[in-house]
Specification:
By secondary structure, the chain is of the alpha/beta class. The protein has ten helices and 14 strands. The strands form four sheets. The protein has a six-stranded parallel β-sheet with strand order 3-2-1-4-5-6, with helices on both faces. A three-stranded antiparallel β-sheet has the order 7-10-11, covered by helices on one side. A hairpin with a 2-residue loop joins strand 10 and strand 11. Helix 5 packs across helix 10. The radius of gyration is 18 Å and the shape is globular. Bound molecules: nicotinamide-adenine-dinucleotide. The site of nicotinamide-adenine-dinucleotide has 34 residues, from helix 1, strand 2 and helix 4.
Length: 308
């Protein structure tokens, strides 16, 4: 199992580290455009191998795509992150060009790969990869919902004063401050609906805190977060590499599912060795449906800015 991670910055390196620590991949290639940067990050990470007990071989490359040849899974994290006060959508101008050229370079050397898109605005970047590569739709996956759901569970556990392992919940919709749809009505503590423990007002607060989860961290850190994003990507990579058939909300091309067409947006999917094994359609309340439809309109508006 060979995994390439493009972008050896904060998220890319964190992702490579979590993949290595989980010890399921034989090889991780980090690639970056900055001279020597990926090689340096790879060497530093390899020097944690004996400390963290993994056998995954991590190598680095400066823009040499031949080193990525034969990758089973490629993760795209290259591009600029947002600064405090910025929206993810504002990154489109620079990141669209980067994602387009990176995906072409990857596919040239790994025509059978599965691509996971992380660069923002992620739903639109995932759509761009669909439009420009012609890969089958099961092999293009956008990561956002797995991270947003982890942030939702963190906020739920905080409100419930419960351990996070007691809590389950999912966020679907667009990966943006306004577009996220935290499914509060479906969230549970040890299989009991959280609405049995929390007032509507507190649940609404959880929802709002979840939606601005990334912005809150960007304000604190001065750039966007990387530990949870890296861990979330590694979860998707592992589900595919180990054919786990696990369910995650991921940004995928919809063709009528949830009444939506011709866009990539977060919905629950089953991940396995074929990438997206299936899209799961769950019953949503009228309010959740309305929120998802509104979120889709926002994603389509951003897609409209692409020069395709
Ligand atoms: N989808 C999500 O949930 C999620 C979460 C966090 C961050 N992000 C996004 O991920 C991206 C990366 O964030 P980061 O914090 O790691 O940024 P970063 O600046 O730390 O790293 C980005 C790296 O990409 C490299 N790069 C730029 N152009 C490249 C190219 N053409 N080829 C190869 N490498 C190139 C840069 O040299 C840099 O090292 C941003 O767009 C950010 O918004 C997405």
């Amino acid at each position: 199992m060979k995994v390439t991670v493009v972008g050896a910055g904060a998220v890319g390196a964190s992702c490579a580290e979590y993949i290595a620590i989980k010890n399921f991949a034989s090889e991780v290639v980090l690639l970056d455009i900055k001279e020597g940067y990926a090689e340096g990050k790879a060497m530093d990470l390899m020097q944690t191998a004996s400390l963290n007990g993994f056998d995954t071989k991590i190598t680095g490359s400066t823009s040499d795509y031949t080193k990525t040849a034969g990758s089973d899974i490629c993760v795209i994290t290259s591009g600029i992150p947002r600064k405090p006060g910025m929206t993810r959508e504002e990154l489109i101008g620079i990141n669209a060009g980067i994602v387009k050229s990176v995906s072409a370079g990857l596919i040239e050397h790994s025509p059978n790969t599965i691509i996971i898109v992380v660069s923002n605005p992620m739903d639109t970047m995932t759509y761009l990869v669909h439009k420009t590569t012609g890969l089958p739709k099961n092999r293009i996956i956008g990561m956002g919902g797995a991270l947003d759901s982890a942030r939702f569970k963190y906020r739920l556990a905080e409100a419930l004063e419960a351990p996070i392992s007691d809590v389950d919940g999912m966020v679907i919709g667009g990966h943006s401050d306004k577009g996220m749809v935290p499914l509060t009505a479906h969230a549970t503590r040890n299989s009991v609906k959280v609405s049995e423990f929390l007032s509507e007002e507190r649940l609404n607060q959880v929802k709002e805190d979840t939606k601005v989860g990334g912005a809150t961290l960007t304000k604190l850190l001065g750039t966007s977060a990387w530990y949870a994003p890296g861990a979330a990507v590694s979860g998707l990579v592992q589900a595919i590499a180990c054919d786990q058939k696990k369910m995650f909300p991921c940004s995928v091309l919809l063709d009528g599912e949830y009444g939506l067409n011709d866009l990539c947006i977060g919905v629950p999917v089953i991940l396995g060795r074929n990438g997206i094994e299936s899209i799961v359609e769950i019953n949503l309340s009228d309010a959740e449906k309305a929120h998802l439809t509104e979120s889709a309109a926002g994603v389509k508006k951003t897609n409209g800015l692409l020069e395709l």
